[in-house]
Amino acid sequence: MPGLLRGVARTAVVAGTATAVSNRVSRRQAGRWAEQSAAQAPQQYAPEPQYAPPPQQYAAAPPPEEDPIEQLKELAALKEQGILTEAEFAQQKARILNR
Predict the structure, then answer these.
(1) How far apart are CA 70 and CA 45, in angstroms?
(2) 92 CA to centre of own chain
(3) Packing angle of the helix pair 86-97, 68-80 (nearest 10 deg)
(4) What is the pLDDT of residue 80?
(5) 75 and 89 in contact (C-beta within 8 Å)?
(6) Other Cβ atoms closer than 10 A to 71
(7) How much is the pTM?
(8) Do residues 68 and 99 lie in contact, with contact meaning Cβ atoms separated by under 8 Å?
(9) Rg (Cα) of the chain, in Å, rounded?
(10) Which of 57, 75, 88, 91 could hold 84 in an S-S bridge, CB 3.0 to 4.6 Å?
(11) Dihedral (CA of 76, 80, 84, 87) sign
């Protein structure tokens, strides 16, 4: 039974590969024929070139606002470390709470 499965799998792989190669050759040949017919066609009725519209510019998304509670905790930690004075802490706290 394993030999039979191996043979079926091998056949499937070979058939799939052959199909893929055949399709690629067909597409390549069709492209060559299209190039030849375009070169032989009269150029008096050449279509106007089509221009793609310019890509749209999107504004960058604003950064997500931090949680006011987390900001207050960070300020309190800075005040405890002596980095912020009481006045600076109060000013920043009011700024955060008045958003």
Answers:
(1) 69
(2) 39
(3) 180
(4) 93
(5) yes
(6) 17
(7) 0.36
(8) yes
(9) 35
(10) 88
(11) positive
- 């509670």: which residue's tokens? 69
Mapping DSSP onto H, E and C, the string for the chain reads CHHHHHHHHHHHHHHHHHHHHHHHHHHHHHHHHHHHHHHHCCCCCCCCCCCCCCCCCCCCCCCCCCCHHHHHHHHHHHHHCCCCCHHHHHHHHHHHHCC
Residue found by looking up tokens 């070139």 in the block: 49
Distance CA 77, CA 74 (A): 5
- 70/84 Cα distance (integer angstroms): 17
Phi-psi group of 81: left, alpha or beta (phi > 0 → left; psi -120 to 50 → alpha; rest → beta): alpha
- The phi, psi pair for 39, rounded to 5°, reads -70, -30
Distance CA 17, CA 39 (A): 33
Can you give the length of the chain in residues? 99
Cα 20–chain centre separation: 28
